[in-house]
Design goal:
This protein has helices at about 5-15, 25-30, 35-45, 70-75, 115-125, 140-145, 155-170, 185-200, 220-230, 240-255, 265-270, 280-305, 325-330, 335-350, 355-365, 370-375, 395-400, 420-430, and strands spanning about 25, 60-65, 85-90, 95-105, 130, 175-185, 210, 380-385, 405-410. Helices cover about 45% and strands about 10% of the residues. With about 425 residues, the protein is of the alpha/beta class. Strands 1-9-8-7-6-4-5-3-2 form a 9-stranded mixed sheet, sandwiched between helices. Helix 3 packs across helix 12, helix 7 packs across helix 8 and helix 9 packs across helix 12 (about 280-305). It is globular and about 60 Å long. It has 2 domains: about 15-220 and about 360-430, Rossmann fold; about 225-350, no CATH class.
Length: about 425
């Protein structure tokens, strides 16, 4: 979008008092090559279209740990000892610099691929970077969550905020000029709630906050992803599983290549080959990954809280105990099941909660409508073809955020975050 039309919109907004329009990026000039949202979600950006970022060897970084919930050592089985302390990653500049916190997406570890990419991008631009696991990841639930029942966004944000304060206290000599915050997917929703919390607690006074592909209605996004598992896939019957079908395709692909090399570029190249996955297979793959995250959440929350829904309360679990039967049971419980059996009962018992629709409104971006509308430091970047969006979601963001919303025409769910155009836009936002 050229300067003149944006300037005209700005002046019109001042004169008429109308909301500023979101920046919708033109599909013709955008240049992102993947038009299939499922493909973009999985394969992300072709390597040649990504920006140059520092290599790990050129980053001054370390993993640290925090002991935030010592009681968990007695609540958790012995084989959970590695996650009784919360781990995180800090990349430090040599001198004083702004610091940015990155919150990972659904069920994701702080060292997941997207968080690692964002770390390299911001570190290369001169920021200290702190990577945090999602409150819905098993390690965060075990070591940092007060109630170990993720899904109440305000509670998850409170837990995250305490972690951020502990990180800052653990590095008193780290010279920080200002604080910034970002998150992707569910982490973007959490970043919005953390930012609002900081308005009253004032530990960081975040200068800028960027939400990348957030769910607007959390229940809609969860339902969209859960439905992908139910996709009917040609070639799958009683004798051939989905995983066997994909494995056979990968085997033939590598046989044709003459060597095995699994890396970031492989998925994109694989999708250009004759063995590429169909839309239905891609949808099933995304849905399956989400179902594993849901199972992780349901299993861990049930275990820590001794609810007995998946793991019998009196069942002894030692380092030699196979968790496979319990995880199989957890896989049968989708996110809707987790909400019904664990989240809503906890919410009603602890907060005197009411209907499901009330819960959805409290945990989604709807709850922050006034804050988002009036907080000029917050911006949102989203994709028009994101698989987690439902009808009216982009309309809500346009009305609420105005010209602080950028809508890209392609990219699926977070698939274009490592595209040069998007990466440049992120850095420009934080530079102001």
């Amino acid at each position: 979008m050229s300067l003149f039309p944006r300037l005209a919109v700005f002046i019109g907004g001042l004169i008429l008092g109308a909301p500023l329009w979101a920046a919708d990026i033109d599909a013709q000039t955008y240049g992102y090559p993947l038009t299939n949202p499922f493909e973009a979600t999985i394969a992300t950006t072709p390597p040649e279209l990504r920006p140059q970022v520092p290599a790990d060897a050129d980053i001054r970084q370390n993993d640290y740990q925090l002991k935030l919930r010592p009681e968990r050592e007695f609540q958790l089985p012995d084989n959970f000892w590695p996650v009784t302390k919360l781990r995180y990653r800090l990349a430090e500049q040599d001198g004083a610099a702004p610091l940015i916190f990155i919150i990972a997406g659904t069920g994701a570890h702080y060292g997941s691929t997207t968080a690692e990419y964002l770390k390299k991008l911001f570190y290369g631009a001169g920021y200290h970077v702190v990577q945090l696991s999602s409150p819905s990841s098993y390690d965060f639930m075990a070591s940092a969550s007060r109630y170990a029942t993720p899904g109440i966004s305000s509670d998850d944000a409170d837990d995250l905020y305490r972690v951020m304060q502990a990180v800052r206290a653990q590095h008193p000599r780290l010279a920080v000029t200002e604080f910034h915050l970002t998150g992707y997917s569910l982490g973007a929703l959490h970043a919005a709630f953390v930012s609002q919390l900081d308005e009253t607690r004032r530990s960081f006074n975040f200068k800028r906050v960027l939400l990348l592909n957030p769910p607007v209605n959390l229940y809609t996004s969860i339902t969209n992803l859960d439905r992908l598992v139910q996709t009917r896939v040609k070639g799958i019957d009683n004798s051939t599983t989905f995983y066997e079908l994909v494995l056979a395709k990968l085997t033939r692909y590598f046989q044709d290549k003459g060597y095995v090399d699994i890396n970031d570029a492989m998925l994109y190249d694989f999708q250009q080959s004759k063995e590429h996955l169909t839309d239905e297979q891609l949808a099933m793959l995304i849905g399956t990954a989400f179902r594993f995250s849901s199972a992780d959440i349901a299993f861990t929350s049930d275990l820590i809280n001794r609810r007995g829904l998946i793991t019998p309360v009196e069942h002894p679990i030692t380092e030699g105990t196979s968790l496979t039967p319990f995880f199989r049971r957890a896989l049968q419980c989708d996110f809707d099941c987790y909400i019904t059996e664990q989240l809503i009962p906890m919410w009603r018992a602890r907060y005197d909660g009411g209907s499901v629709s009330q819960l959805i409104n409290q945990v989604s971006l709807y709850a922050l409508e006034d804050y988002l509308k009036n907080s000029s430091k917050i911006a949102i970047m989203h994709n028009a073809d994101d698989v987690i969006l439902g009808p009216g979601d982009l309309g809500f963001l346009r009305r609420t955020v105005g010209d602080r919303l950028t809508v890209y025409p392609l990219g699926g769910h977070c698939g274009n975050l490592n595209y040069r155009v998007n990466s440049d836009a992120m850095l420009e936002f934080f530079r102001g």
